[in-house]
Known about the structure:
With 333 residues, the protein is of the alpha/beta class. The protein has a domain at 236-333: Magnesium chelatase subunit I, C-Terminal domain (Helicase, Ruva Protein, domain 3). It has 14 helices and eleven strands. The strands form four sheets. A five-stranded parallel β-sheet has the order 2-5-8-1-9. It has a two-stranded antiparallel ribbon with strand order 3-4. Strands 6-7 form a two-stranded antiparallel ribbon. The mean pLDDT is 87. Belongs to the MoxR family. Keywords: ATP-binding, Nucleotide-binding. Residues 54-187 form the ATPase AAA-3 domain. Pfam families: AAA_3, AAA_lid_2.
Amino acid sequence: MAEAVTASFEAAMERSAETALDRIAAARAAIETIIFGQTQVVEEALVTLLSGGHGLLVGVPGLAKTKLVETLGIVLGLNARRVQFTPDLMPADILGSEVLEESSDRRRSFRFVQGPIFAQLLMADEINRASPRTQSALLQAMQEYHVSVAGERHDLPQPFHVLATQNPLEQEGTYPLPEAQLDRFLMQIDVGYPDRAAERRILVETTGAPQAEARHVINAEELMGIQRLVRRLPIGDSVIEAILDVVRSARPGEGDPAITQHIAWGPGPRAAQALMLATRARALIGGRLSPSNDDVAALAVPILKHRMALTFSARAEGETITDLIAKLTQRLR
């Protein structure tokens, strides 16, 4: 009896996985008809959302970060909103506030007016331009998926994802994100320049009269179903050990002293959790039902980079976080 139940469960999971693979492939193809030359960025953004997490997009202006988030909202069927973060933005501008209303019989009461955070996909554009007080308003929402206003709890829509953008060049008038908030982002997605062929395609296809438009492929319910599937995918002990090795060896006092001597502070257990989920999601995007060490190595930089800091002497010597993580993952490939 137990064997029959197990076989039935495995068959149902296999059918769900096959359907998910088709839907993910269709969604990725739809996104790449709008976003050119950013294959890795698109993949990492999808990994972030399929893992149920939040992403921090870092890149200079003009690299289609905003366009990518808009396209993701349309293709994945999510209710998306955008907030332009500025120094004068207040927490109530994001969360919402209570307003005093008077009824026809002159009775007064407070009514909560939802802010833009009540969306399934929130784009926090140039998040580091807002004050720390406003940035911290996102902390509870990103971790606990609800907000508290005037002592009352208000649950956020499901699914709920934050994709924030940040300009790494212009730092005047900005407020660096605190480590506690950076840790809430599952992944830091670095957006670089496209290659020559991709940039030529951008010139041809975006400066004419007819332009491609994003099309709806997946709805929110299907996305949440895929997120549940990601959590059920099997993962081998060797991959779990690889995740632990990479994360733990990136902390001061653990791992190779030649590497850890350059690290001021390293990633916590939340980084290992993120890597565990992300490797499963990347495997699914690649058409596989189980992650490998290659997935761990490919995702180590975007997941660990914003959760580590170099010592002063390491920065003076020209070391970078990316190079250190690359050394930690060499033996996985």
